[in-house]
Amino acid sequence: MKLYSTNNDTNQVSFEDAVFNSMPQDKGLYMPLSIPRLPDSFFEQLPNYTLPQLAFEVSKHLLSDAIPETDLKALIDDAVNFDAPAVKLDEDVYVLELFHGPSLAFKDFGARFMSRVMSYFLREGQKQLDVLVATSGDTGGAVALGFLGVPNTRVTILYPKGKVSDIQELQLTTNGQNIRAVQIEGTFDDCQALVKQAFVDAELNEQFRLTSANSINIARLIPQTFYYFNAYAQLLREGKKDVAFCVPSGNFGNIGAGLLAWKMGLPVKQFIAATNANDTVPQYFKTGIYEPKPSVQTLSNAMDVGNPSNWARIANLFKDDAEALKKLVVSYSYTDEQTRTAISEVFDRYNYVVCPHTAIAWKALTEWQQEHPNVSGVFLSTAHPCKFPDVFPANIAAAIKVPEQMKELEQRKRQATTLDKNFDSFKAYLIKQA
């Protein structure tokens, strides 16, 4: 498998190189040189596959010869060991529950796959791998659990101070071992900028073996394709063939993975990108001008991204053909007030509790289906609602079943270093902690 930089298609590397050197020095993002269309036999058998079987078939074709099939199957079986059910709420409305992994968020798919790929490629005697990750909420917890105790690795998680939920912060700051947390006095975009700057800093790259666990790393994106194929397989079993996916979107890695699945042949009718007040992409669809802006804090904090990194991949996937992109993808944005209303509407209508990110996805799907009533819609539930207890009114909060691992977290001691958003401060921290 070969990959190229979105900023220079002659800059090509192996899958292993792309995993460990997650961002090219030209500041692009890696994309597969060849995206294979899966064979007709795969789609004929799709309803019969389990999630791990399906994940193996998809990754086998996409990764090609990067990992031997026997090793890849073992890696998949270890990483993808939890379910992702598409729960039917209405005749043509399904919620894809992606929170059944250890951190209770969809990021578990990417983090567990990536940590095992990195562990597979790590060779005895090599320099310690330093994994840098910026999080707006859920990524950090998933990465922490994915890498916890992995030999010869160290993870540094950057998160915006005061802008993640209490449970999310517990997941980031209570692990110990090879996981350390840094709270940045700024926004997620500031955290992300610090990580990106570290990757192109000559001194840091000389001293450390740096890689990213954010969705800028292609190994995070690939496993997220699995649950799109799996959701479609579940709907096929119910006789549904025309399917639209509505994706709560922040850094646009999640919907980017869906579009990668589409490129591999998944017959999706429509992708709907649902955002909060950080509406860079919805505004692009309205004006034709892509104009990143500073992020603002909302109830759906994991989507508080004003400059989505993965938009570069999406534009590249369509070779900057804006019309083709706008035909397949539409985008809506919603306020916090609309988010709260959507949470109540879903509970009143279905007796089902959704987190604020998931509520936005349901709202956008509902709006889109009003004009497309004959298409089955799947909205992605990206996190367990227990991670956002302060968002819900008392009657809805009382209906949330808190998993045991969350209760155990509350007994742990938090440990985090506070830094300003200046790169020199972050660089000095890394060097001092070496």
Give an overview in words.
The chain is of the alpha/beta class. It has a domain at 83-102 and 220-397: Rossmann fold, CATH 3.40.50. Helices cover 43% and strands 18% of the residues. The protein has helices at residues 15-20, 40-45, 51-63, 69-79, 107-121, 138-147, 166-173, 188-199, 202-207, 218-221, 226-237, 253-263, 280-287, 311-317, 322-328, 336-350, 356-369, 394-397, 404-409, 423-432, and strands spanning 2-5, 8-14, 30-32, 86-90, 93-97, 129-134, 153-160, 179-185, 209-212, 243-248, 270-275, 329-333, 376-381, 417-420. The strands form three sheets. It has a six-stranded mixed β-sheet, with helices on both faces. Helix 12 (253-263) packs parallel to helix 14 (311-317).
How would you classify the helix and strand content by structural class? alpha/beta
Mean pLDDT, nearest integer? 93
Unreliable runs, pLDDT <50, ≥5 residues? none
Shape: globular
Count, helices = 20
Q: What percentage of amino acids are in beta strands? A: 15-25%
Helices, strands, pairings?
Blueprint: E1 2-5, E2 8-14, H1 15-20, E3 30-32, H2 40-45, H3 51-63, H4 69-79, E4 86-90, E5 93-97, H5 107-121, E6 129-134, H6 138-147, E7 153-160, H7 166-173, E8 179-185, H8 188-199, H9 202-207, E9 209-212, H10 218-221, H11 226-237, E10 243-248, H12 253-263, E11 270-275, H13 280-287, H14 311-317, H15 322-328, E12 329-333, H16 336-350, H17 356-369, E13 376-381, H18 394-397, H19 404-409, E14 417-420, H20 423-432
Parallel strand pairs: 5-13, 6-7, 6-9, 7-8, 8-14, 10-11, 10-13, 11-12
Antiparallel strand pairs: 1-2, 1-3, 4-5
Helix pairs in contact: 3-4, 3-11, 4-5, 5-6, 6-7, 12-14, 16-17
